[in-house]
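Module 6 notes. Inverse folding takes a fixed backbone as the condition and produces residue identities as the prediction. Think of it as a translation problem where the source language is geometry and the target language is the twenty amino acids. Below is one complete input and output pair. Work through it position by position during the lab.
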């Protein structure tokens, strides 16, 4: 895919048309400066010829084969306006950019046709240049002018194609990782809703038994049923925003939550992670979907710390209003060796975004910090 812009030192993107226009202007400025300083016979005509060639290069990407061939042919006409004009050096830059265009902006090898036409034009000029004696050294000179820019253009073309392929693969991997995370969220919410509905059935049956013998107690049971139903509706709304994977419907493993953090911490300590846990004594009562998501975020953050961190890891889980705040910090190794694909962070961001929370992460003074907040309100 052709580039649409180029990065600048200020961090902004330069449109390709502006880049090509600036390049053509710079080439003309250099050639004009040489002609004005040297002032060979016919330099005014040569100035006009160079201007035409540079103007063609300003739109070189629209028809690279035509323009990459036409600009050098236009330059060769300077031999008609004066022998000394033909000896100026700046047009070699225009020639190099033209040949580079034939290689870089043509996907196939048809640029070789333009290269052959340019070589034929140059050798024809040598044959008609008057009493000058030509020998094999002229062949080497012309090859030195034509071949390196073309080879360089093909190399840049190949590197650009490989970069585009890698970016496409990275995007595909990222989409698959996000999809996998959404599928896992959906399965967990599915289990939460199924548990809520089962609880409602049991509570309703109990209320039916109590409605005649103990109306006050039956009223309390029905109030619990209503609360459970509202939470189940909220989790259903979240589930509708996630694409379901119809595989693995049973979900026989119990859904984890913050109550299982101690076991999770013990598991990571057994894996060799030096981990400190700071857990509020009393966390707010969280909807099941929020509870399992908080657990998963802590699990993923500790997994990243185990893979890429060094030293002691701190895990803090605190109440934040009616919700929960999770903060994980750890020293990091050299970023050149610890940099990962970032798929775990993308998965956490997907989960937090769906639940209406916030997620921030970054490295400061050699420590990586991840902070996530999840709301407790199921609405």
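Target side of the pair, the amino acids:
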């Amino acid at each position: 895919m052709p580039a649409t812009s180029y990065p600048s030192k200020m961090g902004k993107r330069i449109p390709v048309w502006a880049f090509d226009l600036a390049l053509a202007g710079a080439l003309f400025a250099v050639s004009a400066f040489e002609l004005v300083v040297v002032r060979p016979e016919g330099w005014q005509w040569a100035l006009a010829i160079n201007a035409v060639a540079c103007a063609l290069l300003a739109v070189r990407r629209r028809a690279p084969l035509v323009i990459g061939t036409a600009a050098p042919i236009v330059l060769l006409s300077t031999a008609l306006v004066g022998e000394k004009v033909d000896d100026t050096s700046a047009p070699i830059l225009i020639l190099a950019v033209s040949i580079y265009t034939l290689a870089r902006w043509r996907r196939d090898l048809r640029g070789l046709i333009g290269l052959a036409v340019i070589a034929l034009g140059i050798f024809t000029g040598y044959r008609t240049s008057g009493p000058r004696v030509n020998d094999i050294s002229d062949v080497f000179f012309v090859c030195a002018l034509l071949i390196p820019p073309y080879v360089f253009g093909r190399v840049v073309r190949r590197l650009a194609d490989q970069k585009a392929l890698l970016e496409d693969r990275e995007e595909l991997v990222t989409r698959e990782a996000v999809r996998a995370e959404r599928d896992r969220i959906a399965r967990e919410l599915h289990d939460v809703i199924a548990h809520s509905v089962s609880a409602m059935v049991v509570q309703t049956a109990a209320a039916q038994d109590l409605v005649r013998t103990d109306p006050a107690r039956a009223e309390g049971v029905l109030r619990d049923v209503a609360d459970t139903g509202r939470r189940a509706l909220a989790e259903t709304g979240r589930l509708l925003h996630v694409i379901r994977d119809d595989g693995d419907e049973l979900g026989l493993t119990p859904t984890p939550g913050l109550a299982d953090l101690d076991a999770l911490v013990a598991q990571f300590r057994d894996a060799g992670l030096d981990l400190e846990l700071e857990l509020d004594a009393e966390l707010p009562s969280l909807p099941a979907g929020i509870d399992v998501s908080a657990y998963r975020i802590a699990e993923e953050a500790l997994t990243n710390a185990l893979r890429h961190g060094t030293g002691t890891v701190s895990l803090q889980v605190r109440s934040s209003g009616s919700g929960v705040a999770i903060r994980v910090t750890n020293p990091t190794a050299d970023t050149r060796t610890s940099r990962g694909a970032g798929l775990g962070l993308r998965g956490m961001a997907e989960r937090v975004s769906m639940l209406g929370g916030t997620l921030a992460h970054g490295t400061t003074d050699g420590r990586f910090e991840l902070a996530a907040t999840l709301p407790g309100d199921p609405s």
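Reference fact for the lab report: The first strand starts at residue 5 and ends at 7.
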